[in-house]
Amino acid sequence: MKIENPTLCIIVPCYKEEEALPIFYDTIKPVLDSLPARCSLLLVDDGSSDNTLGVMRQLAQRDSTVKYLSFSRNFGKEAAMLAGLQNADADYVAIMDADLQDPPDFLPVMLRVVNDDARNYGCVGTRRTTRQGEPPIRSFFARMFYKIINKISKTEIVDGARDYRIMSRRMVDAILSMGEYNRFSKGIFGWVGFNTYWLEYVNRERVAGETKWSFHKLFLYSIDGITAFSTAPLAISSYLGLLCCGVSMIYLLFVFIKSLIYGDPVAGYPSMMCVILFLGGALLLGIGILGQYLAKTYLEVKGRPAYILQEKKLD
Ligand code: UDP
Ligand code: MG
């Protein structure tokens, strides 16, 4: 349904963005003023150790449409996005990074498409067509990750999709109804459904500061994604077990017949070692995979909050 003069809230997760935040604000403000909507900015400080919160307080003092939340420590971008979504009280909600890698000039088109009766879109997302400016090894693993997860998960997870998107109230409510603690937004966005209109653009460099994602952090995040949206790895150990059983039956028969014909000399140390090592490895792999899911279940069961607030200004 088309909304006349809708409200739009833009969520900006910020972790150590004291340099980028003022530039971000100066760039986005004119765009927001030109939009046919009543806009507000919801800055989420993800427990930054620098002066990010100070910058937010200043901006909020100067501009009444700026709101902020601040975490007691770093809880990660997923938690920051969740906090933003829970506190964004608007007809349309957008998520944007603070480093201007998400082009603000897309906002008018995004709002027009999502707030259009004739086109039934619950969401307008953005994706990068290239991974320029990224270390090649990181791009390689990123591509592999998307290939694997889309093979083993029923939820579509779009390669190159950014978190930069605008969503209708319905979609936001659907996302909030998913109460999981281990949140993997790229999967959650796909899981809730709703038609998505994709805008494509070429990767941009961040305007100030540096990326907070180390290779290690990204690797752990990819494991989160796989365990949250697929149980296929659990099946691997079952298949492996079945294969081992089949092969060992054949081998058993072979050993039995051989000893009937040639007697039973004490030999076969190398083959025994191979079997023991292989089975040991396979067992450990299976237990490891099981452990991953168990660990996630453990965290879910504990029901801890996804973040702790230390300060907020929402009006
Ligand atoms: N971010 C966050 N918490 C974190 C890491 C990052 O809120 O623990 C924010 C960060 O401030 C930025 C956005 O998430 O606004 C994207 O982070 P970054 O630019 O470092 O990632 P990249 O663009 O390199 O993938
Ligand atoms: Mg960035």
Tell how many strands the DSSP assignment holds.
Answer: 8
Helix content: 40-55%
Please work out how many helical segments DSSP would assign: 10
Which strand order does the major sheet show? 7-5-6-4-1-2-3-8
The rounded distance between the terminal residues' Cα atoms is: 27 Å
Query: Mean pLDDT across all residues, rounded?
Result: 87
Helix and strand composition category: alpha/beta
Order of helices and strands: EHEHEHEHEHEHHEHHHE
Largest sheet descriptor: 8 strands, mixed
Give the CA-based shape. Answer: elongated
Question: Which molecules are bound besides the chains?
Answer: uridine-5'-diphosphate, magnesium ion
What would your notes on this structure say?
The structure is a single chain. The chain has about 325 residues and is of the alpha/beta class. The protein is about 50% helix and about 15% strand. The chain is built from 10 helices and 8 strands. The protein has helices at about 20-35, 50-60, 75-85, 105-115, 135-150, 170-175, 185-190, 215-230, 230-260, 270-300, and strands at about 5-15, 40-45, 65-70, 90-95, 125-130, 160-170, 195-200, 310-315. The chain has an 8-stranded mixed sheet with strand order 7-5-6-4-1-2-3-8, sandwiched between helices. Strand 2 (about 40-45), helix 2 and strand 3 (about 65-70) form a beta-alpha-beta unit. It is elongated, with a radius of gyration of 25 Å. It starts with 6 loop residues before the first strand and ends with a strand. The mean pLDDT is about 85. The structure holds uridine-5'-diphosphate (UDP) and magnesium ion. Uridine-5'-diphosphate binds near residues 15, 46, 97 and 213.
